[in-house]
Amino acid sequence: MHEFSIALEIVDTLEENGYLNGVKKVNSVKLGIGKYSGIDKNYLGFAFQNLNDERFKDVLLEFIPNDSDEIKIKEILVD
Amino acid sequence: MLNSNRVNRGSAGGSAGRGGRSLTVQRNALESNEVIAKKNKAIFGRAFVMNFLSSPGSGKTSLLESIAPVLKSEGLRAAVIEGDVETDLDKQRIDNLGIPAYQIITNGTCHLDAKMVNGSLGNLDIKDADVIFIENVGNLVCPTSFNLGEDMKVVVLSITEGDDKPLKYPAAFYKSKVMVINKMDLLPVLDSDIAKIKENALSINKDLIIFETSCKKKPDGGVGNKGIEDLVSFIKEKVKLKAEEFRKIGGNMYF
Q: How many domains does chain B have?
């Protein structure tokens, strides 16, 4: 169940790079997820819903699959 | 309960019905882990670092007990970072070899990450280490996502686990440079198909370097067998290459 750690890493990466400055709500996160990334899509969605971070409470995750091992944040929609 | 309605299962579709400001990010989701992994790599210095992944019970600790003393007897200094959900039982086994070891107890977390390893480095004497072994938490899925600053991941698969494991858990085999097929001594009493294990693993990662090992002790207490000897030779060569590379650039390779 490392998806909780991945979800926290995603929030950290967005936070540390200023993408969440002044953001009240994150509506969606578009992710590039490689088939060798070891990520279970359902568990990652579950992790976001249970992060205890109101900004991500109703976030929709979109997955762009590929053949790599990457976990890449491509785009976010925010209010 | 999982709310799978919220998850778009692999569709490349847009954010239909979702308003708001669009921000292009294009960043590695594990960027913060990568930053600490780079720091770890710098701290590891000239030591060659191997991150061992496997399911529980495949024999990672036994493998370290088999190879570390041979390396030590040949003048190489090893250190071990152990990762487990609970207990320091594995560290105790390494302590018995007279090799520096530190136990990370994750308290339920299913993998090591770069921060946990970074936190261990102040408690482990690696100053003169030639090789550092990181034994990750027994789990073929979660540890694959996290770079710890290692030089290579090594996946250990015991022959009792079945030949389909590489296909069921491809990330571990895709991300590793070495696969160790362990418990080969059990082959006479099992129907394991070693050729199939290799075929499946190589179908995921055609560059995997494969060793076949047994850690069963002989009456004299040693475990010497060709697989262990080959693995030790491989590690010695990698230690030498890493030290040469490190020396060439004056020890500043990762800063």
A: 1
Confidence of residue B7 (pLDDT cuts 50, 70, 90): very low
Would B2 be classed as within a structural domain? no
**Whether residue B216 has pLDDT greater than 70:** yes
Chain A: closest CA distance from residue B178 (Å): 16
- Residues 6+ positions from B144 with CB-CB distance below 8 Å: A36, A38, A69, B53, B153, B171, B172, B175
| Spatial distance between the Cα atoms of A35 and A9, rounded to a whole number of angstroms | 19
| Beta carbons of A13 and B10 less than 8 Å apart | no
Q: What's the CA angle centered on B111, arms B106 and B112, to 5 degrees?
A: 75
Provide the residue range defining the domain that includes B224.
16-248
pLDDT of residue B6: 39
Could B21 and A6 be called an inter-chain contact, meaning their C-beta atoms sit closer than 8 Å?
no
- B6 inside domain: no
Whether B210 is covered by a domain: the verdict is yes
Strands B21-28 and A71-78: antiparallel
Contact criterion met (CB < 8 Å) for A77 and B15: yes
For helices B226-248 and B60-73, give the axis angle rounded to 10 degrees.
70
- pTM (predicted TM-score): 0.89
Q: Which of B11, B15, B106 to mutate to test the interface with A (most CBs of A within 10 A)?
A: B15
Q: What is the CATH number of the domain that holds B208?
A: 3.40.50.300
Q: Could you report the per-residue pLDDT of B70-97, keeping only the tens digit for each?
A: 999 999 999 999 999 999 999 999 999 9
Maximum pairwise Cα distance, chain B: 71
For residue B25, tell me if it sits in a domain.
yes
Task: Encode pLDDT of A24-71 as tens digits.
Answer: 999 999 999 999 998 988 899 999 999 999 999 999 999 999 999 999
Whole-angstrom Cα distance, residue B110 to residue B112? 7
Give the per-residue pLDDT at A68.
Answer: 94
